[in-house]
Amino acid sequence: MAAFVELVAGCYEQIVFGYRVRTDQTEWTAKADFTHHAHTASVSAVAASNRFVVTGSRDETMLLYDMKKKVEHGALLHHDGTITCLEFYGATHLLSGGEDGLLCVWSTKKWECLKSIKAHRGHVTSLSVHPSGKLALTVGTDKTLRTWNLINGRSAFIKNIKQNAHIVRWSPDGDKYAVVIHDQLDLYDLQTASLTSTLKNPKRISAINFLNNSILAVVGDDEIVRLCDVAKEKWVCEFKAHETRVKAVESFKMTDHCVLVTASNDGFIKMWKLRLNEELECPTLLGEVNTTARLTCLAVWKPSAPQHTTEKDAKGAEATTSQDGAEEAGALLKTKRVRIFTHEEVILEDDSKPKKKRRKKRKVGGQQEEAK
Fold first, then answer.
1. CATH of domain 4-301
2. With contact defined as beta carbons under 8 Å apart, do 188 and 177 qualify?
3. Does the global pTM surpass 0.85?
């Protein structure tokens, strides 16, 4: 990981803030990197890949920023209404949802809209992509939770949850997911397709973030950050992070600890050091910055680490690339059977096996002959 990260936040005042933070220092200081009056309405969503940052707004537009070149990269115009949620899948695809009920899949190569799906009869309030990139979950104001097969762009399952959920998130391992309805946190297990537990937050939940596969950070309409152990199905830690309600929470991992980043209506972005031990202790404050704006959303841009190789390393790597690459591909791309619900399952493609070429047939003298 590079020795710095960029904190990118949007606000009601239509501005996007960028703060650079050096992570190789004892005391973390956030220095203003850019301020851009990006939109003509409040900024509603922001997401980051290893190169781009995209912001969505109530003005129905999505703006792209090339963080390596430090330039505005253009605008995406497809949704009719507020952009409610944005999420990158790796460096190749962006998914967006809006008040028009559309779920859009974008290619980051040419920024084309590959697929536009009418996902909900009402608004799309939240989306989450499975770590495999094969499935996505969406929730909307039509009181449904929908599972999407991203291989063919079709609905795999629709679950009536009887209430309007506003947040959905996969766990890092993709074996469970969380759904938020007002102040209620519902945890589902993918294998058994069942609701495993329900936890109540004292106030309406505004954002959640999986720190690892078992610890979930929850923030809401108060100044408290609460940590939930999804395996033990209970709250394990809480601490006062801000003076007013917390609007967003993100996280990233360092060598021996996790960094929690929170943004609040009080204008502050704060960074917290948290060790994910068996017995969780309250995190310590690493640094903070006052934007003086009413913040609405937050993302952490982490640049890809530069590759520094010597001539000797390059020769050694060249000799082992073929073998290691084959082993790694075999480990990552095994056939996966994902059981979505009791009567639904999607078989993910096994890309590790070479695909058989189809034999074309041609007509010869009124009869079909296989062309090799």
1. 2.130.10.10
2. yes
3. no
